[in-house]
Amino acid sequence: MLCQFSFQNFKSYRGETTIDFQAATLPEFRETLISEEKAADLIPVSVIYGPNGGGKTNLLQALSCVISTIVKPVNELGKNRQNLILQQKIDAVPFLFDQTSATEPTEFRMFFRIAKSEYCYYIALRSDEVISESLYRKQVTGKKSATIFERETDGITLGPSVNKKSINTSVNPKMPYLSFLAINYDIPVISEVVTWFENCIIRSYANPMVEHQIMLAKDAPYKAQLICALNDMDIDITDYRYDEESKQLFTKRSVGSSEYELPFSDESDGTRKLIAALPVILLALREGRLVIIDELDAKLHPKLLKYVILLFKNKEINKYGAQLLFTSHDMFTLKNTVFRRDEIWFAAENDEHESEIYSLHEIRGEDNERIKNTAAFDKQYLEGRYGADPYLRGMLGGGF
Question: Contact 264/295 with Cβ under 8 angstroms?
Fold first, then answer.
């Protein structure tokens, strides 16, 4: 489970930027939180709103960058522990609107929880080379962190859990040491961390090709689960099959006493999107994975988007701490009946073309009071009261 992610000097983000999955002390939707004894509660869903060009996608790409940087070399050498569901490798491109940032490293820091341990992983990259890297671990209930390894340009220091004579500390500067250890050694703590990275699911529905990347299970229970979810969304598919000869997917429907097949390519845009998206979402819920999706709302009816969000917020369905991070423009779901205030984030550029993010929970009004959980989030957002205004402000006042 992701606890917190920070980064700086990546694409449109120059300063340090943090998105936090640790739940604030709020009264609403406490029953939806991911809770463990003596550990901080985590939120299951985070959504990012904002104008086009404000930095929503770049924020997701920052997280995708560090994940793909770790798992790509492991996967290329066939040493991965899990099948990857990645969109593409994202390069660490610095902020380019000032001369200093363009030559400085891009930095990432992640806090994530696996069972009873919390890890902190840090990596700094410049021109595809690793400038600095470290991994620490502590008990969820503990305060003191133990070093797994630390890497600087002048060498690598190993902590007690990996410090063996056989461990090589000489590594290609373009290779993350975490990946190097996963490729060359069988070390339990390293395997646990790399498996967590491999379990992360990254999808971008801004890319129309993703709708053709479908992971349909052949196992009867998983197949029944997907069909049931589609039926819950009023898509009356009774079955599906993949034809090996024609390399086509066919969906089946019953009309009266007869059954008919339809090629996947003839389905509506929304149905194709759901059939492509739901398998990975249901996989994440079954196994407690992190899902990162750009433009989840694209081509989806708002009620269907709400259905997907509420899957993650239902603890009877989300039993293993799956989390969803996505971008959206959809106003129908920007409601106090769907989200907690700390689950809603906004991304926007400032006057110096730097992207910034902030949560709805952080915003204070002119009276210095926080936004109430009873507020009409969608209406206030469109009025420009939260910043990150998605439309021309003049249009809201009737002029230009």
Answer: no
pLDDT(371) > 70: yes
Do 300 and 263 fall into the same domain?
Answer: no
pLDDT digit string (tens) for 232-245?
888 888 888 888 88
Asked if residue 137 lies in contact with residue 189, where contact means CB atoms within 8 angstroms, the answer is yes
Contact assessment for residue 175 and residue 73, using Cβ atoms and an 8 Å cutoff: yes
**Residues 232, 371 share a domain:** no
Q: Which residues contact 372 (CB under 8 A, 6 or more apart)?
A: none
- Number of C-beta neighbours around residue 179 at 10 A: 24
- 37 in any annotated domain: yes
Strands lying side by side in the sheet with 323-327: 201-204, 290-294, 323-327, 45-49, 344-349, 355-359
pLDDT digit string (tens) for 142-169?
Answer: 888 999 999 998 899 999 988 887 899 9
Which range marks the domain in which residue 230 is found? Answer: 221-275
pLDDT mean across residues, the chain: 87
Please state the pTM of the whole predicted model. Answer: 0.89
φ, ψ dihedrals at 108, nearest 5°: -135, 140
